[in-house]
Every structure is written in C-alpha cells, then in structure tokens.
Design brief:
The complex is a heterodimer of chains A (about 250) and B (about 170).
Chain A lengths: L2 H13 L8 H37 L2 H5 L12 E4 L2 E4 L5 E8 L8 E8 L25 E7 L9 E5 L2 E8 L4 E6 L8 E5 L2 H9 L1 E2 L17 E9 L2 E6 L1
Parallel strand pairs in A: 3-4, 4-5
Antiparallel strand pairs in A: 1-2, 2-10, 5-9, 6-7, 6-11, 7-8, 8-9, 11-12
Chain B lengths: L9 H20 L2 H17 L1 H4 L6 H19 L12 H6 L5 H12 L2 H11 L5 H8 L3 H17 L4 H6 L2
Classes of the chains: A alpha+beta (about 250), B mainly alpha (about 170).
C-alpha cells in the first residue's frame, strides 16, 4: 500500500457520498441566521453582566488602576498595550504597529505588532523544492514581537511548558523565520499568542514585559504547585498534563 | 455598535462547495450522514464569520475545514453523536447515499474503526494533500505525532485486509 493507493481509495470513498440535503443553501442561511441571533442574545446577556461588574470594579478600585485595563489600545513607546487580555510594556525605542494579519516573515526589528490573526506562510514557496526559489525572511534573526489574537493552536505534546503570571504557557520554537510562540496551555483552540524573535536574552526580557491574565484559581482545599520551568511534559488531551521539573 | 452579518457571496459558496465539503466530512467521520452534519456545523460557523471570510484573502473553505477538523477531534473526547465503531454501515446510511460501491462502503467502515485522531490525520495527509507540518499546525500537535498517527492508521488499514487487493497492484 503506497500513499497513492490510500489517496485513491479515499477519493473513491468520498466520491460515493452524495449529500441528502436537497436545498443546502436555504437551510444553512436559515441555520446561520438563527445561530447569529442566539449568539447576540448570549452576548447581550453577558455584556449586561460584564457592564455591571465593571461599574462595581470602577467604584471599588482607584481610578488609576481602571485606566490601565483598557484593551486593544496601541500606545507610544514606554506605555503598555494590550490585546486579548495579554499586556506588553513597550520597550524604550520600540514602535507599535496594529495590523489585521501579521506576517512573521516581514516583521521589522524593534517593532511590537498587535494583530487579529497571523499568516503561517503555508503558501510561501519552501526552499529545496524543485522549481522553487528559497524564501529568505527579512525578519530572520531580528528582535521583534507580536501579540496575535488568533494565534497558534494548542499542542497536545508541547515542546516546553513554563509558568508565568500563574498561567501555564505552552512554548514552541518554529522556523521560517526563527521565532518562539507563547500561549496559555488551556482548552482554547487559538488563544492569544505572543510571538517573540531574538536571542535568548532579548526573548527573556520581552517575556518579562508581557503579562498574561491570571489563570484559574487553585481550589481552596489544595492544588498542584508547578515549577517555574518544566523540563518536559506530556499530554494526550487538554487539562491532563504529566510534567517534570528540571 | 454590532456589525450586521452580510451573507453576500455565502449562498454561492455553499451552492458550489457543499458537495465537496460534505465528502470531506464523510471521510473525517467515516459516515456520510455524520459527515453532512459535520459539514453543516462548519458552514454555520462560516456564516457567523462571513464578514471576514468574504474578503479576497478570506479563504472560507479553509476555515470551514478547520472547524470540521476540530469538531471531529473533539468527538474523540466528547463521544460526539455517540460514535461507535461497527463492522458494517448501518442501513440508514446506505439509504441516503446512492451509488456506493462495496469498496467505498468498506473504506468508510475502515475509517470509522480508526480512532478519530488517526482518521483525521489520514484524511488530511492523503485526501487534503497537506504536508506533515501543515497537519501538525492544524491539529496543534508535533510533527512526530503526525508521523506516528499516520503510521498507526496505515498499519490498521493494512491489518483490516481492505488494501490487500490494492497492494498487489503496487509495482
């Protein structure tokens, strides 16, 4: 059995399937509308609760603290910007840039990007393939950072887990360009992710400037205390992790 | 202010791609009817996000497929639709999908017997023609995990005897 045979058999099985829905367009538009309405109602309820909670918090807390909790604000160097609950104190001399889709391959040095999503570069020609021109990312080896709302997916077997701000973070290194991604190791599909490029010292400094929202509180009757740096971890499903410290 | 969803282009997308998306769902679940349910979940999710998928670089089908893959993977944990491996396709599945050859029925049954994570990897690698790295990124697993799941899935299919005839045709 070779890959071609498997592909052919799958193709044949797929071709044998005929949808039962005679008018899928009308049905899906109808289901889609209902889904949107349900979500709006749910968001409306949630917004009311959140607004009430926010009013209570503003009354209870000093005004200065409340002002720092603004999200999705692009600030000047020396200020703090936040996106998707993740905050970064902008280093001196850096600039911030708000983009819709972040492309790590063309990131500029000493720039902090805030983006809704990112381009993993699947359509970028890969070096080494016949007829393709090797791609050299201009951002390679530079120091930059991005906060992306729809970042990387959760890995079942992450390369490294670290604890920061009471939050268990999944840390992965990737190439094209060389960079590290940091995201909460929770059940979310694509959590807000920090992309950091630079040498180890730069990365650590940038990570120190980054604040994650606190993770879930440990139960009052006890819980697991995780080491700051975990040497290895295994997981077959989110929420169940076997971890060993260094 | 909430932005109203504009379904312009959505109907054309569904009309032109529905059949292929259902087929992808059928392979992901190993069942035509469940595959159609899965396809509809993906397409409803696309309707909700259509304002950002309908732009020139929106890639709505990639989005639908990603939703379907994640839903199929969650089925492993949540026993979605009480999926139970069986030797033969239930009669209900046969009635709704005409013109299925015995081999196609057997392929779907073999897929259904695979664990969801192996089935998804197999379909992405050999039907959607994704690279190991792309599958790893889509599923949020390491490339090594993709390799091992692919290997286990192929071994299971070989053990099922379904591919004996095909193997003989291999030069």
């Amino acid at each position: 059995m070779n890959p071609t045979h498997v592909s052919e058999l799958l193709e044949r099985a797929a071709a044998s399937v005929t949808p039962t829905e005679t008018d899928p367009t009308s049905r899906l538009v109808s289901l889609g509308r209902r889904s949107v309405q349900r979500r709006r109602r749910a968001w409306g309820t949630a917004s009311s609760v959140a607004a009430a909670a926010a009013v209570a918090a503003v009354v209870a807390l000093p005004l200065g603290t409340a002002a720092q909790d603004r999200s999705e604000a692009t600030g000047a160097p020396g200020t703090t910007v936040s996106l998707g609950g993740l905050s970064v104190a902008v280093p001196e001399g850096w600039r911030t840039s708000k983009v819709t889709t972040f492309d790590p391959c063309i990131a500029e040095p000493h720039t902090l990007y805030l983006a809704a999503r990112w381009d993993p570069g699947y359509r970028r020609p890969k070096s080494g393939l016949p007829g393709s021109t090797p791609v050299k990312c201009t951002s390679e080896g530079q120091t930059w950072m991005a906060v992306v709302q729809e970042g990387v997916a959760q890995y079942l077997t992450p390369n490294r887990l670290v604890v920061k701000d009471g939050q268990l973070l999944q840390v992965e290194e990737s190439d094209r360009p060389s960079m590290w991604t940091y995201r909460a190791f929770n059940d979310g599909n694509q959590a807000t992710t920090a992309f950091i490029s630079g040498d180890e010292k730069d990365r650590e400094q940038l990570l120190k400037r980054t604040t994650w929202p606190a993770g879930p509180m440990a139960p009052a009757h006890g819980g697991l205390v995780l080491p700051d740096r975990i040497a290895s971890a295994t997981s077959e499903m989110p929420g169940m992790v076997g971890a060993t410290d260094a | 202010m909430l932005r109203r969803a504009e379904p312009a282009g959505y109907e054309d997308f569904v009309a032109s791609r529905y059949r292929e998306i259902v087929r992808f769902g059928a392979l992901l679940t190993g069942d035509g009817r469940l595959g159609e349910d899965l396809a509809q979940e993906g397409l409803i999710a696309a309707y909700r996000s259509w304002h950002r998928l309908s732009v020139p670089d929106g890639r709505p089908e990639a989005y639908v497929r990603q939703v379907m893959v994640r839903t199929a993977m969650r089925a492993r944990r949540r026993r979605w639709r009480d999926e139970v491996p069986t030797e033969d396709l239930p009669d209900a599945s046969r009635r709704g999908f005409a013109d299925q050859s015995d081999l196609s029925v057997q392929v779907l049954a073999s897929l259904r017997r695979l664990p969801a994570d192996q089935r998804v990897v197999l379909v992405l690698r050999f039907w959607a023609d994704a690279s190991e790295a792309e599958v790893a990124q889509t599923l949020g697993v390491a490339v090594g995990t993709v390799k091992s799941r692919t290997s286990r899935a192929l071994a299971a299919l070989r053990a099922s005897g379904l591919f004996v005839e095909s193997s003989k045709e291999t030069p």
